[in-house]
Specification:
Elements (H helix, E strand, L loop, with lengths): L18 E6 L5 E5 L2 E5 L1 H7 L1 H8 L12 E4 L3 H12 L12 H13 L3 H14 L4 H5 L18 H13 L6 H9 L2 H5 L8 H23 L15 H15 L21 H25 L5 H7 L3
Organism: Mycena metata
Protein name: BTB domain-containing protein
């Protein structure tokens, strides 16, 4: 006797039953599933947030999937989708004025772009760009909240954030984030070597090491050439002996190791012990040098110019 064909598996018979996320509104009218995680949300706000998602919902028709709600499958990470849904349906959970974990900002960038959620994407990009800017003015701006853009770790220069930013810039084609991120890594080589370097591509690992050498030398030369009397004499100096001694002392301090600080702003400590004409000369050369250094920064890591990097970004 022929064996009866086994009926198609029902939802409850599936090998891996879906789990409810913590984003589950009992009066929600659509269920979204990513991998094995379900979210019960509201169709109206969901469609309003994204024309891409609206089209996907419209194409579902009137089918009833779970608990009388249509079931929309998405191919995204449940973690990323959860961050985005919290922002959509509980906006107070992620206000712009407070630090956010990097993975939340990354989710806003990934899905904000994928689903054309422009406000979410723009705010997330502005948050990352405030730490890894494209202009020397932004980099040197004194913004007290700059180090509190990301909630974990609280210090935006921690190598975890730098590595994650490099990976995200490559993933989402945001190359304008790379010069300052690669430079951060290059001036923290010891910490970088002990952390997540293996997750980066060989090109970026080599760029951090080799490009960082050139960047550090240029940083010291362009911004502090005025400390070398043989290179930049100060004819108007009114205290040659004391100024030369001070410049020598300051130069030696900077070269332990050379150009090791990610710092482009003028510091008042550089003026200590110098006469007024030497201070004026130093500020002038420092200002010109930082602009030159920033303009050339991408080239040290074999990247195109700033203008090209900005043009390459995928919107």
């Amino acid at each position: 006797m022929a064996t009866k064909r086994r009926r198609a598996e029902s939802w409850d018979d599936s090998p891996t039953s879906p789990v409810r996320s913590d984003i589950w509104f009992e009066d929600g009218n659509i269920i979204v599933q990513a991998e094995d995680t379900q979210f019960r949300v509201y169709k109206g706000p969901l469609c309003k947030s994204s024309e891409v998602l609206k089209t996907a919902v419209d194409n579902m028709g009137d089918s009833k999937g779970v608990d009388g709600c249509p079931l929309l499958f998405l191919s995204d990470s449940p973690t990323d989708l959860g961050h985005v849904f919290r922002a959509l349906f509980d906006p107070w959970s992620n206000p712009d004025s407070v630090p956010l974990p990097f993975e939340v900002v990354a989710a806003f960038l990934r899905l904000g772009r994928k689903y054309d959620m422009k406000p979410m994407y723009s705010r997330a990009l502005a948050r990352v760009t405030s730490v890894f800017p494209t202009s020397v003015e932004e980099f040197t701006a004194c913004v007290p909240t700059k180090l509190f853009v990301f909630a974990d770790p609280p210090n935006a220069q921690r190598l975890e954030i730098v590595v994650d930013t490099i990976l995200l810039a490559r993933e989402l084609t945001l190359p304008s984030l790379l010069p300052s991120a690669l430079w951060y890594a290059s001036v923290n080589l010891e910490a970088f070597a002990n952390r997540r370097a293996t997750s980066l591509s060989e090109i970026d690992r080599q760029g951090i090491i080799l490009g960082g050498n050139g960047a550090r030398s240029a940083y010291a030369e362009y911004l502090f050439d005025w400390l070398d009397e043989s290179a930049v004499p100060s004819p108007n100096c009114i205290a040659p002996k004391s100024c030369c001694a001070r410049k020598m002392k300051y130069s030696l301090k900077l070269w332990r190791p050379p150009g090791s600080k990610v710092r482009l702003s003028w510091h008042a400590s550089a003026e200590k012990g110098l006469c007024t004409p030497c201070i004026t000369l130093g500020k002038k050369h420092h200002s010109e040098g930082r602009k030159r250094f920033w303009k050339e920064l991408p080239s040290f890591f074999n990247l195109p110019s700033w203008d090209e990097l900005l043009a390459l970004a995928v919107e």
